[in-house]
Amino acid sequence: MSGVIIYHNPNCGTSRNTLEMIRNSGVEPEIIHYLEMPPSKPVLEKLIADMGISVRALLRKNVEPYDKLDLDHINATDEQLIEYMLQYPILINRPIVMTSLGTRLCRPSEVVLDILPKAQKGAFSKEDGQNVVDEKGNRLI
Length: 141
Fold this sequence. Notes:
The chain is of the alpha+beta class. Helix content is 27%, strand content 15%. The longest helix has 12 residues, at 13-24.
């Protein structure tokens, strides 16, 4: 893979911060608005495998379908959880970033710095004002 791909939700501050850190490295990523264009089942399974996390670790818990489906209490299989995520893409936690150096769920957003192929070009602060990268491109947190 030569580029950077982000599964993005523009309404999410963590996702926006992650996208801007990618851009701060001088890269314009391929942006997949996963709520509008959810990944296919094979793609979602590959993302989970590439991240090395459990299916349940990718679930967003603070959204209405999670409670409605009682996902805290049912003993769902990985297959069932993936089906729920495909049916309700809002259940997929984000942002997910893929680069030539790996695939990560970027929570917190600065996790993306671990897999960017290019260094930061300058200072970066999150939307909340927290400094992440200094003016020389060095990671602060």
